[in-house]
Amino acid sequence: MITMKKLFSALFILLFGFIGIGTSGNIVKASTMVEQTSEMAKTFSQLTPEEQSYFKSKGFSDKDTFYTQKIEPQDPKTRFSANVLRLTASTKKITNTQGRTEYIITSPNSAMYRISTRLSLGSAKSYTQTVNLANSYGYGGGMYFTFTGKRQYYSVKLAMQVYNTFGVGSVSCTAGGLTIGK
């Protein structure tokens, strides 16, 4: 029995030794995998004309602050073959207990077919939404929310899972803040 155990141990070591050697050629440089993210607060005049048109149609103006998050690879050579995502968002107060966040998500290199969104109102409450799309490269949407808890200032953050032909990509962004509650 001891010799059988030694034989199986030797076969096991040899088998995984060959597998390890066989796959060592698939090493990818870390620099090509690093994503560059940049979140920026913007004024209305700093938005693209398309973003200005969308947000203006939703009641936003040059008095509002907008936030943009862009995720893309650092290596410019791989930007056309990567899951590049850009999210721009802003939040408005509707009543003392209601707010609205509008956003534009774009995926210039790959058509999106589903977006799952989570809106966080500070650490007090979160809201979710899923939108199915018909192969769209850009989508403008919004989330209304009601909060009847303690009245105070809450920051608003959006986190999205974007499903497209590259797979699944994630992007999150500050969407402003507001004083809300009873």
Walk me through the topology.
Blueprint: H1 2-23, H2 30-33, E1 35-42, H3 49-57, E2 66-73, E3 85-93, E4 98-106, E5 112-121, E6 125-136, E7 138-146, E8 152-164, E9 167-180
Antiparallel strand pairs: 1-2, 2-3, 3-4, 4-7, 5-6, 5-8, 8-9
Task: Characterise this structure.
This protein has 182 residues and is of the alpha+beta class. 19% of the residues lie in helices and 51% in strands. It has 3 helices and 9 strands. It has helices spanning 2-23, 30-33, 49-57; strands at 35-42, 66-73, 85-93, 98-106, 112-121, 125-136, 138-146, 152-164, 167-180. It has a 5-stranded antiparallel sheet, with helices on one face.
Low-confidence region ranges: 10-36
Average of the residue pLDDT scores: 80
**Oligomeric state of the chains in view:** single chain
Intertermini distance: 75 Å
Provide the spatial order of strands within the biggest beta sheet. Answer: 1-2-3-4-7
The total of helices stands at 3
What is the total tally of β strands?
9
Question: Can you give me a brief rundown of this structure?
Answer:
By secondary structure, the chain is of the alpha+beta class. The chain is built from 3 helices and 9 strands.
Keywords:
alpha+beta, globular, 3 helices
